[in-house]
Amino acid sequence: MGKLLVNVFLVTFLFFLGNNVEGLGVNWGDISSHKLPPKDVVKMLQENGIKKVKLFNNDETILNALAGTGIEVMVGISNQLLKDLVNPDIAKKWVKENVTRYEPKSPKGVNITLVGVGNEPFLRDYKDTLTNVTGPALENIQNALNDAGLGDTTKATVPLNADVYLSPSWNPVPSAGFFRADIVDPLNYILKVLDKNNAPFMVNIYPFLSLFYGNGAFPFDYAFFDGVSNPLKDKDGVEYTNCFDANLDTCAAALAGAGYSNMTITVGEMGWPTDGNPYANVTLAEKFYKGFVSYLSKGKGSPRRPGYIEAYIFALFDEDRKSTLPGNFETHWGLYYDDGTPKFPLDLNGKNKTLASVPNVEKLPKKWCVIKPDVKNFTALMSYACDRADCTPLTNGSSCQDLSDAAKASYAVNAYFQSQQQKDESCDFEGKATITTNDPSQGTCNFTIGFKTLTALSTSPSPLPSSDHSSSSDAKAPSSSSASPSSKNSLAFASLGVLFLVSLFFM
Prior knowledge:
The protein is of the alpha/beta class. Helices cover about 25% and strands about 15% of the residues. The strands form 6 sheets. A 9-stranded parallel β-sheet has the order 7-6-5-4-3-15-14-11-8. Strands 1-2 form a two-stranded antiparallel ribbon. A two-stranded antiparallel sheet has the order 9-10.
């Protein structure tokens, strides 16, 4: 069985030793139209004392920027490759091209310590298309790492969604946790590979999504770390005051039931978005992260997994090209805005009181694109702009929802204008928009300014072929996902749209 004991289950984001942070981990995604130079991002990571980074792919520019820094790196393999990796020869080739060539054991190389084989492949939405290929792909990648002489320092794992485990309806408490019946066999395959190679079990846990999918039935305070007046009571007097502990211990119980009680648990994703939903805002995100920092600094851990915690915070930056199918908050998970500016003060290294910004970012001039006062029809204009820029702050429950229709149209055209690097022709819209130096921001709604980027843009002016646009006057963005309300006697823990229930004795 996994021999790395309890005290390694969640620190990547923040691991305190006294008042000093031993290490922290972040997810560095790149589904963005405008990307910051990786070398400058790495400087920011070092300034903040971030020692672990989780990538979803193997971007060469990012990996080269991480070379020689000593930062522990997790590289990812997309779900689309899993079927191919059932072939051991393809797995060997992948390891050679994406791990070995970066010399992970050399001080000058990239310190690749983990390989993520797929991403949440057991989601029910995949309809079992990946169920039977994930285990063999994992085994082949780990075998290829072993054959390359890297297996002692580089481990392969599978980042899983928290929907792979649950508690029974007749005993909905963490200690009764077990793995979903429909994936027991393929999951046991994975567990055997992880155990044989002393690799961690990785799961993504999102208290925000528990609140989001709870539809009012989930107790607000239980998503944070401030404590609750009526804790969830498990057997032997064990009490749970936050859903993170309960979720983690449900996972621990499921592992124990499968025969792997000592297997290390690492949290692959954990975060709080800042826009796109009434619960997604900077104030609550700051509350969540500061509470999590305090929680980790105590080194107490959860009831079933006491000790320090290893976790990767999701995410480093906002990503404006992410799908909003789960919810309009999906483009706003970052600790940082897309220009490398932190959203709120947070001490990650025990020395500073705020996050360091990404250096050398040059903001564009203070000018904005707005609708002309005499324009009354915004339908086609908004549709065009929001098809090409992020308009999620305009949706219900978001930071700009209270704007007038004209102001919403201005937000939309400005978002497009900034995404096009403030090119004059991108603020025309057949004469309906104009450039201003007066900041149109109001209330909680910030009309952003872009930054200079080397990212290649598929630029275009702003014509409005009316036949190409919908008739809706609202911003064109997918509506938030929703789930059925939980019963009065249950507590919904959700992760990316799939619910599992834990008894709620205090509602």
